[in-house]
## 1
Amino acid sequence: MAEGSVSSTRELERVLEDLRALSGEVTTAAVLSKDGELWASTPPPGVDRERYTAMLAALVERVVRAARENGESRFVQARIGEEGGYILLLGLEGGETFAATTGLDARVGLVLYDMRNVRRELERILGFREGGRL
Amino acid sequence: MAGAGLALRNYLLRNYLENSAGPKKGDVQIVLENGSTIEPDPEEFADIARQVLQISVQAR
């Protein structure tokens, strides 16, 4: 992995940790590339990252498919509520996905608000990463 | 001055969102680029969503 990628991954993880500190209802947060590759995430050691990434990527794929079936190639935001909590997704400018999970009692509107507030910061870091300027 | 106004706006919005009711479980809502909102069948997402949430709980 290039040095720039490592440092941008650290920056992404710092922003995700800041989100978790700001919004205590966020259990995990992650950034996935357009191709479903995990670029940064907050789950600590012990959590099955590979499985987490694969499941999250499959979920994003279904959301994108639903968007395509409705004539759009991308989505802006998705909220999936299930037994155990919520998965919240924000589409980023370059086609990446910003994901967060919460418990069932979370104030989802507030978490989405906090996610939207950090989105620009993530896009700035990803812009540097893709532009190879790091 | 503008900064104080923005801070107040953010404070009020945050307060409103903190007190607003959340969505129900078993629902899927997607906002598209054209601004429209779709609600696909939650069954298509349920199994994978449950697995993601199970893994996420380990992170607590």
Note: The mean pLDDT of chain A is 88.
## 2
Amino acid sequence: METLERLLREHPFLESMEERHLEFMTGCARNVRFASGDFVFKAGEPAAAAYLVREGRVALETHLPDRGTTLVATIEQGEMFGWAWLYPPYRWRFDARAVLPVRAIALDGPCLRAKCEADHDLGYELLKRFLREIDRHLERSQLQLLDMYRVNL
Amino acid sequence: MTEAIRNVSAPGLHGPMTPHFVPITRAARETHDVVTLHLENPDPASIFTPGQFNMLYLFGAGEVAISLSGDPEKRDTLTHTIRAIGSITHPLDAMKRGAMIGVRGPYGRGWPIDEARRAETVLLIGGGIGLAPLRPVIYSLVRNRGAARRVIVLCGARTPDDLLFAREFANWSGPDGFEVHSIVDRGELSWKGRVGVITDLIASARFDPSGALAMICGPEVMMRIVAGDLASRGLDGARIYMSMERNMRCAVGACGHCQYGPTFVCRDGPVFPMPQIAPMLGIREL
């Protein structure tokens, strides 16, 4: 548990998190590994965890019948992904696949939800951090939509 | 035909507006719509500053401003990397070795190379064809490897196939503080690199902003966002430089086609320190 707590403390997503909150969250955390090519989850499956990437690269991708698989974004060391467990219907919207071998910390979604309900200070602190991540992804999507490198004729 | 064209470049005709006619010594395909043309340098004694541009003249098509993209120390060759997007660059993109084109220059203010050599960390941030004007800086800094200085090259492109100079990335990066990172807006299943936007690379780049200097070239919207992100990381705006692109015609600040607020991009730029142009970047009419 001490190691997991240290790993949580060192991850940028939880930077400057209060010790009592880190201790509380450690009970929801576990180390996970994915080989290159493994799916972390697939669209439509129950969303059960948030992932803090410690090493490697994960692609968020979607499959369109007429266009094949498109990579929407990649997640790197020090970043996190997965927040669909926060709100109903608790289902993933994208596939997540390890592009490179991945080591991550999985934070169990139902466990975190229960802890956030029990400790609203923790819930508010976590929500602010997830909101920052969601905002970052939204901004990225907006910039991708701009198609900045397109030729303007 | 070649001799006849060469004779146009007779002594006595030359001035800042008169092109030299030179042969293409090599045409290298970079991507599906980008080519690098290597030209015989009519004046090997002169040296250009990275970031400067030449006017390339094509018979029957016209003249276009293109940045120099080659090694400043290779003085027998003028190198230009061209994206086929217009009525002049499309035929330039199709030109082969031995064809003659006109060239005059170099013009404009380039990148602050001396300041870069003194910086603790140099960030070179190029989006799309914007990496081309930065490549001479990379060559200059790679040649002077060895100091404790770090050089971080961040490249963005639309797709993996659009990444410029990708074959050279391995030569540029090394254990001595040179890093190259790339990202594409969208990738396919076979792509193992990063997908996202160039600001993702800035967020994950590790550097001390107090000793850093940044040079940015790419679409204007990209440069504006990148400069904002760098400033929010603590980089002094006076140490952020951008290369602007406007419709350059005369290239000597006489015709006014490239006027940008109180400046002429051809004469006062194309490279500007951020404080000089930041007030104008958000003005729609400019």
Note: The first helix of chain A runs from residue 2 to 10.
